[in-house]
C-alpha cells in the first residue's frame, strides 16, 4: 500500500536560496579536492606492461628489415588490414617485403600479427594517436612503419652468414 | 588558403593600403589588436563545438569516457553533447553503422545546421573495420562527408581528443565553413 506523504514547501523552501547555497557548497568542496582531470596534450598516460598500440615493422642492429614476407600476419589479421607484396633478395636466399601496407583504419590493434610473427619483425608500439583527414593517408607503407618501429637488436643474427 | 570574403567586410584591401596599415602598426609602440571578423567567428566556433554523439557501438563507451571527468572534453569547449541534431555542429560517428542504420545517419546529418563537421571515430565507422560483411557500411564516408578519421578499436579517449584538436584546426582554417 502506497503511503502518500504531503510535502508542503515552507518559507525557506520558497526562497530557494538555501538550496542554491547548499549546492554551491558541494561545488566549493570539490574545488579543494585532488584534481582528477588529465591535462591531455601536456600530460600523458603511463602505459601498463603489454599495452597494444600501433603495429610497426622493426630493423635489426645492422639495419636489415627483419620481415621475410612469409604472409603469416596477413593471413592471421582479423580485419585483413595487412597487405604484403613479396620481393626476392639478390642472393636468392630470402624473400623480403617489397611493399608492406597496414591500413590503420582497419587495424584493431589486436596484436595477433606480433604473436604469429616467426621473425619477431612486427611489434605493437606505444603510439595510439593516429588520425587524419583522408583514408588513403592512413594506409601506412613500409617506410612509415619502419620509421615508427625503429630498431630492435637481434641476439641471433642467423642471416649474417648467408 | 583564404575563404571567400563576405560582402559585409567589403572588397579586399589594395596593396598600398595594406602596406600603409602595416607601416602604421610597426610605427606604433602601443599594442593594437587587429583581426578579421571571420577569424573571430571561426575562433568562437572552434572553441564551442557541440557534438552530436552518434554512438552505435562500443566506441560510444570511449566517447562517454572522454566526456567524463578524467579526460574531460569540456576543456576543449565540446562538453555540450547535443542529443538533438538541430543544435549540433559536429557529428561523432562512434561505432559500426549497419546498412539499415545508414538512412537514419544521413537524415541526422541533414538535420544538423551548417556549418557542420564529421568525425569518424574508430575502425568500424572509418572503414568498416573487421566487419567486412554485407550488412555493414564500409566506412561512413559513403554516406556523409567525413573530416577526420580516428584509428583504433576503440580509440583511446586521448585519440578522440586528438581528433577533436584536428577538427578545431580545420574550423580555424575555415576550409569548409
Structural description of this entry:
Chain A has 162 residues and is an alpha+beta fold. Helix content of chain A is 23%, strand content 16%. Chain A is built from 5 helices and 6 strands. Chain A has a 3-stranded antiparallel sheet. The longest helix of chain A is centred in the N-terminal third of the chain and has 15 residues, at 17-31. The N and C termini of chain A lie far apart (89 Å). The model of chain A has no long low-confidence stretch (mean pLDDT 89). Residues 1-9 of chain B have low confidence and may be disordered. In chain B, strand 1, helix 3 (59-67) and strand 2 (90-94) form a beta-alpha-beta unit. In chain B, helix 2 (37-46) runs antiparallel to helix 6 (157-173) and helix 3 (59-67) packs across helix 6 (157-173). Chain B has 6 helices and 4 strands; from the N terminus they run H-H-E-H-E-H-E-H-E-H. The longest helix of chain B is centred in the last third of the chain and has 17 residues, at 157-173. With 177 residues, chain B is α/β, with parallel strands linked by helices. A 4-stranded parallel sheet of chain B has the order 1-2-3-4. Chain B has helices spanning 15-27, 37-46, 59-67, 102-111, 122-127, 157-173, and strands spanning 51-55, 90-94, 117-121, 148-150. Chain B starts with 14 loop residues before the first helix and ends with a helix. Chains A and B meet through strand 5 of A and helix 5, strand 4 and helix 6 of B.
Quick take:
The complex is a heterodimer of chains A (162) and B (177). With 162 residues, chain A is an alpha+beta fold.
